[in-house]
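Example (one chain per record):
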Amino acid sequence: MVVKIRARIGWWEEDERRAVAVASALEPCNREAPRGMKIHTYNVGRKVITEIEMRGRPETLAATIDDLLACALVVQRVLKI
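Predicted structure:
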């Protein structure tokens, strides 16, 4: 089933510097989004926000969110080194 879907995911980082770093690190991944999908990641203060807009299957959105969160976790781990 193909549907139009919008999602917004947000989480807080320890400080604004980390939020900027995480959002910046995720932005290149957003440019590689599947056809028909728009992804934008940015920060507002300590909060990192990703907005996704797509026309497709809900399963595709779920997989994209899973990939996004996995990438965010890697960035967070690198920042702790």
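Caption: The chain has a mean pLDDT of 91.
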